[in-house]
Design goal:
single chain, alpha/beta, Rossmann fold, seven-stranded mixed β-sheet
Length: about 230
């Protein structure tokens, strides 16, 4: 699947590279780090796209130095024009670097795109003391019944693995990680420019989530999982 990121297919399907979601994602990353008292000087993002998350984190963490790695030449060509004194972008696979070390490594909406994501997670474990992952929870009762949401994620976004909360957390533990904290994020509720059905489902999602967060996520979907691991 790496070819769709390198040959321009993904960039053609997603020309903004989800830049509009970057402030929202950066704020959630900031909160989970601060809530757990994670002290850091260096942050690395694997699969940084056009760099929006790191540039927002630079503003939120004024004493940190940030590095982004990207395998798509099209996304990197944009990110590389946006580097600053504290935020640097690199083209290529971080696993080919001689001995990269960071306090925090970010994997934001990445592992669902990787062929052998568990081997990938294991290989990344030495690179950062802490990992923050954002994982879309594509598997829900409504998505399985309708089928089209999952197929759409595969065709439009390149998702080749699909998760629900317990499966995602088990995969991290089976890859050698200790899960320190996790929480749901609600993109379908909090981000603008949602499809008609997502707008229609906004209040049912809110009401069911107020009654039982786990049940709401499993039944109606529309959520992702933010995880802090070590």
């Amino acid at each position: 699947m790496n070819s769709i990121y390198q040959d321009g297919t993904y960039f053609e399907n997603n020309p903004a590279w989800h830049e509009g979601d970057s402030p929202w994602k950066a704020n959630h990353i900031k909160n989970i780090l601060l809530d757990n008292g994670i002290v850091h000087d260096t942050i690395c993002e694997v699969g940084c796209g056009v760099g929006g998350i790191l540039l927002n984190l630079e503003r939120l963490f004024p004493n940190s130095h940030l590095s982004g790695y990207e395998i798509s030449p099209h996304a990197f060509s944009v990110a590389n024009t946006r580097g600053t004194d504290r935020t640097k972008f690199y083209f290529g696979n971080i696993l080919e670097e001689p001995d990269p070390k960071f306090d925090v490594t970010l994997l934001i909406d990445v592992i669902e795109h990787v062929d052998d994501y568990m081997a990938f997670l294991k290989s990344l474990k030495p690179i950062g003391t802490y990992k923050v992952l954002h994982i879309p929870l594509d598997l829900s009762v409504q998505s399985v019944l309708r089928v089209s949401p999952i197929i759409g994620q595969r065709q439009d976004l390149g998702h080749i693995h699909y998760f629900f909360k317990d499966l995602a957390l088990s995969a991290l533990r089976d890859s050698g990680y200790t899960v320190l904290d996790w929480r749901y994020t609600a993109s379908r509720l909090e981000l603008p420019d949602q499809a008609y059905l997502s707008r229609f489902m906004k209040w049912p999602r809110r009401l069911l989530y107020a009654l039982s967060p786990d049940l709401a996520v499993r039944v109606v979907g529309g959520y992702s999982l933010l995880v802090l691991a070590k």
